[in-house]
Description:
Elements: H1 2-14, H2 17-23, H3 46-54, E1 56-60, H4 64-68, H5 90-99, E2 104-110, H6 133-136, H7 140-150, E3 154-159, H8 172-187, E4 195-198, E5 203-206, E6 213-216, H9 219-222, H10 225-235, E7 240-243, E8 249-250, E9 265-266, H11 272-275, E10 285-286, E11 289-294, H12 311-321, E12 326-331, H13 342-358, E13 368-371, E14 397-398, E15 406-418, E16 420-425, E17 433-441, E18 447-450, E19 463-466, E20 479-491, E21 496-502
Parallel strand pairs: 1-2, 1-12, 2-3, 3-4, 4-7, 8-11, 11-12
Antiparallel strand pairs: 5-6, 9-10, 13-15, 14-21, 15-20, 16-19, 16-21, 17-18, 17-20
Helix pairs in contact: 5-13, 8-10, 12-13
Amino acid sequence: MKKLFTSLLVLGMMVPFGASAQLQLKAEAPANPDNEPVPVHPVPHPRQLKWQETEFYAFYHYGMNTYTGEEWGMGNEDPKRFAPTAAPNPRQWLEVAKEAGMRGGIAVVKHHDGFCQWPTETTDHNVTKSGNDFGRNTNIPRDFAKAAQELDMKYGFYISPWDRNSVHYGTDKYVKDVFLRQCAELAQYGTDQFEMWFDGANGGNGYYGGRNTTISVDRATYYDVPNLRDSIHKVCPDCVMWGVGGEARWIGNEAGWAGQTNWSPENRDYAPESNGMYGTENGWFWLPGESDAKATNRGWFYHDGESPLTPERLFQMYLETVGRNSTLILNIPPNKAGVLPDASVNSLKGMGNLIRERLTNDFAKSAKVEVSETRNAGAARNYEANNMIDGNKDTYWATNDGTTEAVITLTWDEAKIIRYVELMEYIAKGQRVKKFTVETTQDGVNWTRRATGVETTTVGYKRIIPLNSSTANSYGDGFEVMGVRIKIEDSKACPLISKVSVY
């Protein structure tokens, strides 16, 4: 052993100086010329960031159930029952969504009954077997994608992993030759898709090609999700997989609300029904919440006699989802003619008007902004207070490392009537804020705390605080103020705020 050690020592002495230097590990830390804050993990993938920025988008439940009156078809429906009374018009769906302030939409192209609304090669249970020419010429993914691209809106598809029609469901053949191939077909309708929706993945009772039985599967392993994600992302790099895809979580209810305290980090074993609304502060991976809700008073699919919710109620949903670090996917079912009914159109337009009237005139842009501390600037980046009102999503205000409490003050020379304060964190480096308060002043001297009935805890991607504490009656008379003060009282690390708005 002594001879071996000596030989190695001699060999080391014989290595040229330059080569020896190359073998040494660098002791210094990586340079940080811009003095950027260290991320607080977990952090979102770039595709999750783009998805979150969509904020508010439409859901279109349309298909066989539109004509049978069911919500979950058994899979034994005669394809001829899909018989639109006119050519379905996805462009009209998206035009209405855009007027409502939405930035995209997701179309249901295959529900649990297995009926496919495009001419797929994977099953005969599709539009080519429909009961009239309108049905046989239908291709929802083709027309939906084309309309979205023309309207500059984001788009994606709902495709049920569960298939109550397929004789192969529950076998490996179904996953390889039916489900994965259907997903691949849909990916070909556009590489710029932003989301695929995978729902109802555990199985249950169904027709199953005449077997008429109950089939249960383990969704965690059955659908070959890693292969699914890799395959879709190669074609659609910005497409987030909802549900079984594991890249966005169900917010935990279908009532259009998220928890006032709502973290984007989560653990893999979370129970959405009990925790989907809230996330987990120290969760180990990024799983942001999406709230799915109905804009009508009946089912997800169109039903004769249904009525839309009022614009005011829909605006409340917006505050309780988008305004609580969630996205909102709002369902508007097309009718038997393949268009959105007039009553739904009018209600959605009314909602859009409320969003524009109440959340557009940003008084923060004309405010004097002061902060208790500003992070030292780097070579090519600064962290000044005005970054919060510059309209640039890639700039932000920050404190120095170790400072987890701070104060942001906005003041005006003339009084403003205000009702909402909006905050946005720079979540590319993780979610941080744990507790804050909002105060206003009428004279610049005396300050009054507002939103005392609100959990002013998390911020995340976006938080909208109604100063009167009510989302149901949020507009009200407002408060006449000369200043607004936001106190960040606790944060996981130095807070990073990309936007402050006052309406």
